[in-house]
Amino acid sequence: MGTKVLTMLEPLWQGFPPVDPLTVSGSVSCMLPPRYESVSCARKFTRETLRGWDLDDGLFDSVGLVVSELVTNALRHAILAAPEHAGATPPARLHLMRWSQRLICAVRDPSDDSPVATGGEADSAAESGRGLYLVESFSDGWGWHPLSGVTHGKIVWALFRLP
Description:
Layout: H1 3-9, E1 26-32, H2 38-52, H3 57-79, E2 92-98, E3 102-109, H4 131-138, E4 141-146, E5 154-161
Antiparallel strand pairs: 1-2, 2-3, 3-5, 4-5
Helix pairs in contact: 2-3, 3-4
């Protein structure tokens, strides 16, 4: 992976679990237009990427669910809810990064607000508000980090250990 690509990805390493960015064996990203149809596009992008990386189709069940939740949260709370949504709000981006033994799914959005995990088993009958609970349940870990510098926003990520 070239120095130029590593420089472009530098904001993505903020807040991730410790990994050596030089050992990334695959890294892709896609822009998510500000509409809910982006969730299905993100799932399709994820499925195609995992297949291209020769990862087991069974892995997609968990990864696809987590990607759906992260993208939905970004759209609902950071993009479509923004008062300036009329065109000035930057889009969200989905990033998938693969190492030999782990996969990270990350969604970058323009909101500086921290994600709030609500719901859980106690709220299992609720129709919404359980997204981060599902992310926590189906991934091997998750977190978030505000972006620094001139870029506003945050990255919310989920880690999967690969067999």
